[in-house]
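Tip: read the tokens left to right.
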């Protein structure tokens, strides 16, 4: 091998080391985290929050083609209540916030392919826009309406969890106000959808590892609380001592990234 060829091999190995193929497989519950399905609008500086419909369809198809069972929050609760293990190959597909594009783009794909999805809804922005974003960095887009959310639930394809009333940084609030954001959103969502909201996700992941805030989430009555930390969580889950981590799917990710997320708990360094 020439020096030039050897240099190319080293460069290729160095580049590929950014992916986690060389790590050992990590055990644990697999929870995928999506936000928006569609094309980022002009001016978006958060393009990784957008997954194209083509990629999303390919990713869901990959899961089903490789024998994965998709779970609702209620399925997970039933397993926990019964003290049962997770199905050998299972995954939760979750979306944060409750965008209209979850209805127009993601839901039809899930329905077509026969997969289940779960959406963490920000109650006070139903039928409005993503008001928590600075429009200078992420243009406002429509959130799903209550009618759209109810239609998705009625289809048997989508379940809901809470993402607070207003999507705040919980650690920036007084503890009583943070507790209200979590408890009131559970109450309002249960009234709107006529079913238990057993799952909660911390906006920005903020508060997931703050003991006082997490205690308020559990006091509000949620069975599950989800962080925004990258990784998988052991099952049976130690509810008293840790939140449930997730696998963030970025707009640039392909099916190889997805496979590495599922096996290694992360795709890139």
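Filled-in amino acids:
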């Amino acid at each position: 091998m020439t020096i030039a060829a050897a240099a190319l091999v080293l460069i290729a190995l160095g580049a590929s080391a950014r992916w986690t193929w060389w790590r050992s497989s990590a055990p644990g519950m697999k929870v995928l985290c999506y936000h928006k399905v569609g094309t980022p609008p002009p001016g978006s500086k958060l393009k990784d929050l957008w997954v194209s419909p083509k990629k999303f369809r390919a990713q869901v198809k990959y899961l089903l083609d490789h024998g994965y069972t998709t779970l609702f929050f209620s399925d997970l609760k039933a397993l926990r209540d019964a003290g049962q293990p997770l199905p050998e190959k299972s995954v939760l597909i979750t979306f944060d916030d409750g965008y209209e594009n979850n209805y127009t783009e993601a839901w039809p794909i899930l329905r077509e392919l026969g997969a289940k999805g779960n959406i963490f809804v920000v109650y006070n922005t139903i039928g409005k826009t993503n008001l928590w974003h600075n429009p200078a960095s992420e243009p406002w887009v429509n959130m799903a309406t209550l009618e759209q959310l109810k239609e998705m639930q009625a289809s048997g394809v989508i379940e809901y969890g809470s993402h607070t009333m207003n999507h705040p940084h919980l650690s920036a609030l007084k503890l009583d106000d943070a507790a209200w954001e979590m408890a009131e959103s559970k109450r309002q969502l249960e009234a709107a959808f006529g079913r238990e909201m057993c799952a909660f996700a911390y906006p920005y992941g903020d508060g997931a590892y703050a003991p006082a805030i997490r205690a308020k989430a559990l006091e509000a009555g949620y069975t599950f609380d989800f962080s925004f930390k990258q990784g998988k969580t052991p099952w049976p889950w130690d509810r008293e001592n840790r939140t449930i981590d997730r696998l963030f799917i970025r707009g640039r990710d392909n099916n190889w990234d997805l496979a590495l997320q599922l096996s290694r708990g992360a795709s890139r360094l």
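The helical segments are 3-16, 53-65, 73-82, 100-113, 146-154, 175-193, 211-219, 255-264. Residues 175-193 form the longest helix (19 residues).
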